[in-house]
Amino acid sequence: MAAETLAATAGIEVYRDGKCIIKRIVYWMDLKRNYKKLMQEAGDLRATKDAICTEISRFRLTEDMRVWIARTGMIEEEVIELETKYEKKQRWRLDCLANLSRDMTEKCNQVRNHREEGKLQKMTLALELPEPVRKIHTLKLQENSSLHKVVRHVLGFLDDEKVRRIAICGMVGTAKTTIMENLNNHEKVAKMFDMIIWVSVTKEWSERKLQDAILQRLKLDVQGLTSIEEAALIISEELKEKKYLIVLDEVWDMVDLNKIMGINDNQKDSKVLLASRYDGVCYDMEVDEIVDVQPLSLNDAWKMFKEKVGHPISHPLIEPIARHVVEECHGLPLLIDRVARTFRKKDKNVSRWEDGLKRLQRWDSVKIEGMDEVLERLEICYEDLKDGEQKECFLYAALYPEESEIYVDYLIECWRAEGFINHANNFKQARDKGHTVLNELIKVSLLERSNKSKCVKMNKVFRKMALKILSQSANSKILVKPHEELEDFPRKEEWELANRISLMDNGVSTLPKSVDCHDLLTLLLQRNKYLTSIPELFFMSMCHLQVLDLHGTKISALPFSLSNLISLKALYLNSCPDLIEITASVEALKHLEVLDIRKTKINLLKFGSLIWLKCLRISVCNLETGYHIETQVSRFDTLEELSIDVDSSKEGWDEIVKMVVKEVVMLKKLTSLRFCFPEVDHLDLFVKHSPLWEKDSCFTFQFSVGCHDSAFAQILESIDNPTHNILKLVNGQGVDPVIIKVLMETNAFGLIGHKGVSSLSAFGIEKMNKMFNCLIDRCHEIKTIVDGHKTSEAVLKWLENLYIKDVPKLESIWEGPVCAGSLAQLASITLCKCLKLKKIFSHGMIQQLLQLKHLRVEECYQIEEIIMESENAQLVPEALPKLKTLILLDLPRLTRIWANDSLEWPSLQGIEISMCDMLKILPFNQVNATNLQSIKGQQSWWGDLVWEDDATKQRLQSLCILD
Fold it and tell me: Residue 27 — very low, low, confident or very high, per pLDDT cuts 50/70/90?
């Protein structure tokens, strides 16, 4: 029995040993295959680890993932150890090789399992990565609306590799955020970038808050950060391999993205898109392109309002009311949206609509849902003004009717008189400071530029806000009722204790005999055309009055109570054609600085005792024509600004002016003179004898020589350049040396009806180094503007605007060789009624026009090509890189703009073409003119165009505005 047991045991052992030997043999035989499998698995593990380390920021790794990476390193070392053993296997016994093969098999399984664990963790982390785009719920923009066109414009810049930073700029409420939201959600933008990062920059923003918002968007949970620099490093590493778009909404101040995000403009085609109401911020952010967003047109505003209100608006009795409602919103999408929400609830109840309109027009007492938000947004612009001076100046402008033209020089004078402009020792300094304030108010859209030269206006929305602020002020009581068709002076309870009264542009015919207005500072009664007299005691209590405007009334005399205005600083009596008498003693007006009596019959001698005046505006008809003329103007020896209007239709006016010139040259403190010289000799007299005509003098001038002509002021005068020296030469002959001398100091030149010259070069064009604006009108002998054969240096280097009208013999703008640097700043060209003109851009000229933005050609009947191929054979595709608008009107022989579609037109935004029936081909294809937003023209013309392909036609069709 024992023997059998022993035999069985021995058999089992033999079986086990045999099985083990077989396994060893199998391991030995599979050594090479197991080695390859291990190397393959090890390579896959390494790739998985590298992908994790590349794709997932080290700041995003979890503790488990860090452990996995560390364990991966240990496994890789173990694999290397096995690999080393394998390379030394030739000297090993079979059992050792079998053990190595077995170890490789076990390690291979371990590597595979570890890799699968890593892949699982990677998938888990991937679910926590930030989405490429976070869609924002927003208003969908109507196709071809003005806002939609802005979106399309910005898309062109986003697709332009040369443009890295783009700004959307506009006043509050113009839907900048809505535009940005639509861009954020746009499919094309999502395809352009790996990631879109939207950040709202609040007014209370800080670098840390901005960083936290970006880190949160990137889903980076970084604890224990102590510095801005550390956070910037984390953001930079997270984005370094990505093409991203940073979207910054409502930027209030310059944001240093390099400091906050550790990024610069060289990172992998990434871009920055920002929105701000301040253009200064856009410049500080060094943007490449600024897209200006204006309030909606009335048509677009109506469409938006109609869409939001819905069906009730189609009611025939409601639609006219609704259109008035839209007008009250001034094209501000924010306001339209809030107002539409309220009026939608009124359904088809006409009475409720009429009541709503009246309440909206009052607005000081209106309670409309969401209006508080609108007011709060608007008042932010006001509250954000830098100082009380700017706020006071803004509120003062609300005394004028909504949307009315406010002459800038006049407004600044009122600001100075009211004491808003401080620390100005003279009028020039006051005007400079005033223009600084004015520009700030325009930048934040509290005031707007007007189409009329040197004028601004305040839109009705901001005006209502300003009046609301004034009405709530404890230090101010106002009576503001301009342009309200008043026939009677307001009731006592309205004007008593008021410190500012504005009743301009009404039909008031009589004033109270006396008013108790001890605190009154400003009284504006201008353009009450039925006001014929002022009661003798009317001004008796107004001892603090500083601004009095009576211009444009029919008064014939000033009452003796005028002498009670001992604080008066500005008095405006201009355009009172019946005014002839003054019974008051003006010596009491010790503080009067500004006096305007143009177009009145009152004699300047009656104000002769006011020798302390700083600013005087008169007409020649205010001067005594007798013996005493020699002492009328020169007695005001402290004058800083003098303007003398001339009526050239009056007989003997030239002789009066000659005497006046002799007096004017005696005024040694003048800093500004506006004057018309009947003859060139009179100008020569002034230049030779006035001590002000010195090279380094601060003296500025607006001169006319010949007939006094107020035309073209819009072209020559500029709100942006109030100190421009202007010279208009009207109905002159030939070239006088004094004209050449004055032109050396001239910034804006108008040559009107001149004879005896064939080009502007005759006036010494090489010395016109300060010329910015040039107008040439009705000069029937001029054949070219610049004769390049007569100059060997760059000319008109600073010319910005060139306006040429009714020059029938003009053949070219430039004739002959063009020196490099000429016309380098030219931004606008207007050509009108130049009947012989054939070539606009002569050979070599177009290469200098790197800043040309606007080109208008009208009624030039010989023009066949805008850019002649024969003159511009070697034109590069990048020509006219800044051209934004092209207007072509009534050009019956025009056949093409350019020979083909080779030009890029990178900045072109708008085209208007009318009465150009022979123009059948446009120089565009599918890929050029990427920023084109509109094509205005006639339906019949568009239908006759010939196209290279349907794709180009379809692309441009969507931009058309046809009639």
Answer: low
312 alpha-carbon distance from chain centroid: 37
CA distance 117 to 239: 27
pLDDT at 10: 47
Say whether 910 sits in a helix, a strand or coil: strand
Cβ neighbours of residue 261 closer than 8 Å, sequence gap 6 or more: 211, 214, 232, 235, 236, 239, 246
Residue 313 contacts residue 345 (beta carbons within 8 Å): no
Query: What pLDDT, on a 0 to 100 scale, did the predictor assign at position 93?
Result: 61
**Tens digits of per-residue pLDDT, 71-105?**
888 888 887 877 777 777 656 665 666 776 777 77
pLDDT at 343: 86
Cβ atoms within 10 A of the Cβ of 951, count? 11
The segment with the largest mean pLDDT, out of 467-481, 562-576, 862-876, is 562-576
Within 277-345, strands assigned E span 289-292
Using CA atoms in the order 805, 806, 810, 813, what is the torsion angle rounded to 10 degrees?
0
How far, rounded to the nearest angstrom, does the alpha carbon of residue 46 sit from its chain's CA centroid? 54
Place of tokens 């150890």: 81
Task: At 644, give phi and psi (nearest 5°).
Answer: -125, 115
Residue 341, C-beta contacts closer than 8 angstroms, at least 6 positions apart: 308, 369, 370
Q: Which of 48, 17, 199 is nearest to 113 (CA)?
A: 48
pLDDT in tens, 209-220: 888 888 888 877
Q: Are the C-beta atoms of residues 236 and 263 closer than 8 Å to each other?
A: yes
**615-619/581-582 β-pairing:** unpaired
Note the pLDDT of residue 161.
83
Are the CB atoms for 56 and 238 separated by under 8 Å? Answer: no
| The pLDDT of residue 933 is above 90 | no
Confidence of residue 59 (pLDDT cuts 50, 70, 90): low
Residue with tokens 């059998």: 4
Dihedrals φ, ψ of 729, to 5°? -110, 110
Strands (E), 320-419: 406-407
Phi, psi of 580, rounded to the nearest 5 degrees? -140, -20
- Specify whether the CB–CB gap between 778 and 802 falls below 8 A: no
With residue 594 as reference, give the H or E element that holds it. Answer: strand 594-596
Nearest CA among 60, 98, 417 for reference residue 222: 60
Q: Output the CA–CA distances (angstroms, integers) from residue 910 to 103, 789, 913, in the order listed.
A: 76, 36, 10
The tally of CA atoms less than 13 A away on the side-chain side of residue 139 is 22
Give the up-direction half-sphere exposure of residue 202: CA atoms within 13 A in the CB hemisphere.
7
Q: What is the C-alpha to C-alpha distance for residues 641 and 635, in angstroms, rounded to an integer?
A: 14
Per residue, the 3-state secondary structure of 606-636, as one string, reads HHCCCCCCCEEEEEHHHCCCCHHHHHCCCCC
Backbone phi and psi for residue 232, each to the nearest 5 degrees, phi listed first: -60, -40
| CB-based contacts of 270, cutoff 8 Å, min separation 6 | 193, 239, 242, 243, 244, 245, 246, 263
In 10 A of CB 107, how many CB atoms?
Answer: 20
Q: How far apart are CA 586 and CA 594, in angstroms?
A: 13
Gyration radius of the chain over CA positions: 39
Q: Residue 546 phi/psi, 5° resolution?
A: -115, -30
Q: Pull the structure tokens for residue 833.
A: 């009624």
**Cα–Cα dist 121/54, whole Å:** 15
Residue 542 DSSP SS3: coil
Tokens found for residue 295: 């309030």
For residue 666, pLDDT over 60 is answered with yes
Average pLDDT over residues 322-334: 87
Check residues 136 and 657 and name the one with the higher pLDDT: 136
Q: How far apart are CA 931 and CA 909, in angstroms?
A: 6
Distance between terminal CA atoms of the chain? 121
- Rounded to the nearest 5°, which phi and psi values hold at 52? -65, -45
Contacts of 81 (CB under 8 A, 6+ apart): none
Which strands make up the sheet holding 455-457, listed edge to edge?
Answer: 406-407, 455-457, 448-449
